[in-house]
Amino acid sequence: MNRLRRVSLFTAIFLALALAACAPKPTPLGGEDLTRASRQLLLVVAEDWQYTEASLQRFERSGPEDDWKRVGAPVQVNLGRGGLGWGRGLHGLALGAGPVKREGDGRAPAGLFALGAGFAQEPAETGAKGLPVLRADRDLVCVDDAASPLYNSFVRAPGGKGEWKSAEDMLRPDGQYRLGVFVKHNADPMTPGAGSCIFLHIWLGRGVASSGCTNMDAPDMLTLLRWLDAGKQPVLAQLPRQDYERLRAAWHLPQ
After folding, report:
1. Which of 50, 86, 121, 208 has the most crowded CB, counting CB atoms within 10 A?
2. Going by DSSP bridges, is the β-strand pair 108-120/179-183 parallel, antiparallel, or unpaired?
3. Is 253 within a domain?
4. Based on the structure, what is the number of domains in the chain?
């Protein structure tokens, strides 16, 4: 009887291991691997939703099945004065507890986002080769008027006049937009009032929170601008730590 029980137990364990080996891998959120096409990744992890400072690390890989490899050292960044709030990006909408990003709330968007064009006061001097860089002069604005059909987009408007009641001048006297990159939060599709004109850009100093952007020291921003390559479909993953741990496997993010 004992021998039969041992055989039955062995058989049960063998079948369980065999079934586990044949079981399909967990399906990523949304039913697809959101980072599969990307070869460059910016990972920003804050300790919690209300934190206004975090760390940014660059990663790259050769293909979707390869592991992410660190590039350079982590750099310090400031977030929005209100911390983080779920943005609208490649991940869709909010994916759990936490505030939701709105226009004027001072929160930087949390989630997974594609990156758009860069911008600089003197594009040729940046040395950027893989990313289109717009000239941030007196005619370039980013529309933050939620009632405008041009909401959350760059527009070249001589004199700063157009189909909007408010827009950010990209030629700032404080130099914060001397170098930067557009983050595609609430960009495709665009929802009025969900937040606009979110950038990576130069900070005024460590600990000086932004109005909703992620900013850093000028040399770090220049390094980032030169490294980014639009052909490698770079993405920004920006999350509080507990949500990064929860979503890391589904989004195929580095550990």
Report:
1. 86
2. antiparallel
3. no
4. 1
